[in-house]
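Before we proceed, please read the two lines closing this message. Report back on whether the C-alpha cells fit the sequence:
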Amino acid sequence: MNKADLTNRIAASAGISKTRATAIVEAFMASVSSALKKGERVTLVGFGTFITSQHKARNGRNPLTGDLITIPARRVARFSPGSKLRKALNRK
C-alpha cells in the first residue's frame, strides 16, 4: 500500500473527500516527523510506537574500489508494534 492507497481507504471509510483525507495523512506524517526530530516518542496505543535511535559512526568499505570509508553517525526512526497490531498480524 502506498500513500495514495491509504488516502483512498481513509476517504472511503470515513466518508470524506480524497482531498480532505490527503490533508489528514499529510498532517499526521508531518506531526510524527516533527516529534521524532525533537527526540520525542510517538505512541499510538494498540498500534505502536515510533522512536528514534542513534547509530554510531563506523568504518566501511566502498564496494566498487574497496577503499576504507567512514560512515557518519546518524539518527534513524524505528517502529515497535503495539499489542493489538501484533495480535492482528498473528491471527489465522
